[in-house]
Amino acid sequence: MNIIIKKLYWIVAAMLLILVAGCADDTVADTKQQVATTAQALVTLDVYKSPTCDCCRKWVDHIDTVGFQAATHHPSDLNLVKQQLGVAPQYQSCHTGVSKEGYIFEGHVPADIMQKFLAEKPKDALGLAVPGMPVGSPGMEMGDRYDDYDVLLLKKDGSSSVYARIRHQG
Predict the structure, then answer these.
(1) What span, in angstroms and rounded, lies between the C-alpha atoms of 53 and 155?
(2) Is 13 helix (H, G, I), strand (E, B) or coil?
């Protein structure tokens, strides 16, 4: 239900954009361009997760509110999916997102970090990972508790490096 509301939000936002554009300029070409730009702003991800994992659902809600559109899948063997995508066990978490370009987003990666990565498209990158389930990461909110954690850049050769450090002021 929550996902439907969010999708309706984006549809209404696009319609308002069309109306505002129509009032400001009567050209149909400009309006069509603005609608196309809005549609391109949504990044579609296939998200593989367990149907019973609540933190995965919360992470999907997080990304859906800031420019992503998740299509969730519940494979019978999630570990096999991760293995086929090239996510080594030491980088794994409870869910895996895959962009249309094939980039992997493993675990509770913040949406703004994902957007930065997709804009930069680092050379030889497989994707990003937040191994484990750090408290306070998107989907793992627990009041005012926060763990510091690193977002790792996964490389196609199997190596990794720190892409971003998440540090909370306490």
Answers:
(1) 27
(2) helix
Q: What is the pLDDT of residues 124-133, one digit of tens each?
A: 999 999 999 9
107 DSSP β-pair partners: 130
The residues, ordered by sequence, that sit 6+ positions from 5 with a Cβ below 8 Å of its Cβ are none
Mean pLDDT over residues 1-19, rounded? 45
Q: Which positions ≥6 away from 42 have C-beta within 8 Å?
A: 10, 67, 68, 69
Sign of CA dihedral 93, 97, 98, 103: negative
Domain ranges in the chain are 1-41, 44-166
Q: Which CATH class is domain 44-166?
A: alpha beta
Mean pLDDT of 103-118: 97
Is pLDDT above 70 for 16? Answer: no
Neighbours of 55 (CB within 10 A): 19
The number of beta carbons lying within 10 Å of the beta carbon of residue 17 is: 15
